[in-house]
Design goal:
three-stranded antiparallel sheet
Length: 269
Amino acid sequence: MISEKYKVLIENTIEDDKVIYRIIVRSDTDEKVTHNRYSQLKDFHDQVTKSIYMLKLQMIIPEFPKRKLFGSTNKSQESILSRQIELQNYFNELFSVEKVLNLPPVQKYLPGEQKQQEWKIAVTIERYSVYDDVVVYFMRFRNKNTKEEWVYKQRYSEIKNMHEALIAQGFKNKLPPFPQRKLFGMTNENPETIEKRREDLETYLNALFSTQEIYQSEVIQYLIAESQQDYQKSKKIEQMKRNSQQKGDLNVKVQQIQQKNEDLIKQEQ
């Protein structure tokens, strides 16, 4: 999933004395419309909050517009309009948080949502690097159906967080064994130990993706979306660097030509 900018517009209508909010989410190329009551939107906010906690994500999201302390919102057009504006501001602020866009509850509101049956994932941990005594594993994901591939970097602790999140979702008895930490010493001090852990993590991840129920879980769907977004972002940055380098090389050539012309003029004088 390539990170996009979304703009949210909200309209309202009254049906059977209940306020229905029309949520219009627009990207540069598409839009999606959903219809929800306030209580359903509050449930959505609670799901997002729960997902952030479960996945141990470090992010701050906006507060959800509170209920009126007295009276009913749908009794006053002014109150309805006020809540509509509050909800619209809430959604626009929420959707400006990049990592939030990869959460399954949020993706249901986004245009261009992909269907799970399009994916059949295999994972290869093709290498690792050690940065500041921390081992980072380079995982190559491959969608067997579309042949699409992308690379994502994670530490052991981040993969373990995902395992714990799956346990929290109720998959404890269906999960493959997770590679354990060393009882003594540090893994990053021994290349053989790192290689063994790399193999064990690769086996673990492929076992997750081969179990349909686990694969369809919110945790794994977030991993797929987040890893794709991160890969596309990295590619964009690399392209910008190449363009900058090419522009720099061109400037150098222009300066060289200018200097050569100036030297020729001096010689003629």
